[in-house]
Amino acid sequence: MIATVYVTKNFGFHRGEIYFADLDPHYGSEQGGKRPVIVIQNNTGNKFAPTVIVAAVTSKVSKKPNQPTHVLIEQNPAFSRPSVVLLEQIFTIDKERINSFMGMTSEWEMAQIEKALKCSLALDRENMNQERGNLFG
């Protein structure tokens, strides 16, 4: 019997951590290139899976209108300038796409990210019912 062993970079990967990752190749309106990402996957998945679920981050704050799926991070030591977490730009990527550790989100930032993620995935029953009304009403 042959065992499958996943060889990954030696990062611990925890929810809320900020990494620099390579999201290329990308298509159309997907965020791509080398950029910061924030781990949004649960820590059990982070520990055992060869992949990690992340949200893309952009520093183009002025080009991104205030949307319920966006979280503005004005001051975090990981970023040299204000940045926006794009919770409509969620990716499952191989851990080999991660280049370097940048830092950690604060509890407040992560709470805002979770709120925007719920909106993006329609996990909040109240928002989900409003969307159904818009779709079928």
UniProtKB/TrEMBL annotation:
GO biological process, one term: rRNA catabolic process
MF annotations from Gene Ontology: DNA binding; hydrolase activity; RNA endonuclease activity
Domain of life: Bacteria
Entry EC number(s): 3.1.-.-
Record keywords: Endonuclease, Hydrolase, Nuclease, Toxin-antitoxin system
Pfam families: PemK_toxin (PF02452)
EC primary class: hydrolase
InterPro entries per record: PemK-like, Plasmid_toxin/cell-grow_inhib
Family per similarity comment: Belongs to the PemK/MazF family.
The protein's role, per its UniProt record: Toxic component of a type II toxin-antitoxin (TA) system.
PANTHER family linked to this entry: ENDORIBONUCLEASE MAZF (PTHR33988:SF2), ENDORIBONUCLEASE MAZF-RELATED (PTHR33988)
The protein's name in its UniProt record: mRNA interferase
